[in-house]
Amino acid sequence: MTVRLEFPHDTLSVLKDERYSHPVPIVQRRMEALWLKSHNLPHAQIAALVDVCENTLRDYFELYREGGVEALRAVRFHRLGSDPDAHAASLEAHFREHPPATLKKAQDDIEALTGIRRGRTQVGVFLKKNSICVAEKSA
């Protein structure tokens, strides 16, 4: 199936520039795919050159068709909802009342309060970022 897309001159200029200069690699890949499409290369060849499957290539074309270059620039990564930062206020209040003696104790408290199990390194980073002191660093 041939996908028909139109590329105005100003869009071609943006595709040409941002396929190498955009700071996000996935956006560069999208721009490159559309740049090659604007030169009427076969989809299989574009997919091979850009190193994506043809389904992904069709997704790029659909993005462009629906939202133009701005849609190609949009990056939406899924982010897990179990981030302790979402519980920062309640954890900070808990640790102000009950300062942890060790990172192990803080790790156990975070798990008990939020259901989120993090490694000691991540717990230490979280505590430091939220200015919560631990008496000693090891258990």
Automatic annotation (TrEMBL):
Taxonomic superkingdom: Bacteria
Family annotation (InterPro entries): Homeodomain-like_sf
Pfam family, one: HTH_23
The name this protein goes by in its record: Uncharacterized protein
Organism: Methylovulum psychrotolerans
